[in-house]
Amino acid sequence: MTQDFLPQLKDYILDCLELLEKSACVTNERDSILFKHNRIYHHNIVRFNYTTYDVRRDQDVINLKTPHCNIMLLKHHDDDHDGKFRYAKVLGIHHVNVVCAGNVYESRQLEFLYVWWYEPSASSADLLYPQCTLCRVHFVPLANQNAFDFIDPGVVLWSCHIIPAFS
Predict the structure, then answer these.
(1) Which burial class, exposed, middle or buried, applies to 63 when counting CB atoms under 10 A from its CB (0-12, 13-18, 19+)?
(2) The organism sits in which domain of life (predicted)?
(3) Number of structural domains in the chain
(4) Which residues does 12 contact at the CB level (< 8 Å), separation at least 6?
(5) Is residue 166 situated within a structural domain?
């Protein structure tokens, strides 16, 4: 988990810069990504604005110091998980000022969430009651390479409450 944090973060930043700028990093390598003042800024709270069913504006708050730190996203088209949504637990709320070596050396602020993914779990209750609409999820195992990831806060739909089911 922690040994792959920085290389995985630099890969995520390279992908973001390629989407944001047509002339992203010239070398397209991790070493071309520099953090201004060698700092990654940590935050405890992130707010998500959304529109309610009656077309009003509302806001969800994720606070890392409380149990209310789960989020819901739309499933990506090439994702092989069941259902329309993905769920994740937010482990970190960060922003970094990125400088790409070889360019103009102007910094760009990138915000990101460090998450631990949930995956759908098949249980005997799902087989007995297939009409139930609540999705049963569990954490992706720590040994899985894709258990942790970085995501853009802009793709989060809203926060969600995951109710633990103890056996």
Answers:
(1) middle
(2) Eukaryota
(3) 1
(4) 112, 149, 150
(5) no
The verdict on residue 54 lying in a domain is yes
Give residue 107's domain range.
5-160
Query: pTM of whole model > 0.85?
Result: no
Contact between 40 and 93 under an 8 Å Cβ cutoff? The reply is: no
Task: Compute the distance between CA of residue 52 and CA of residue 65 in angstroms, rounded to an integer.
Answer: 26
User: Does 112 reside within a domain?
Assistant: yes
Task: Give, in degrees to the nearest 5, the angle at Cα 91 between 31 and 5.
Answer: 20
The answer to the question of residue 167 being in a domain is no
Are 137 and 120 spatial neighbours (Cβ–Cβ below 8 Å)?
A: yes
Span 99-158, pLDDT tens digits: 887 756 788 899 999 999 998 887 655 555 566 667 788 899 999 988 999 999 999 988
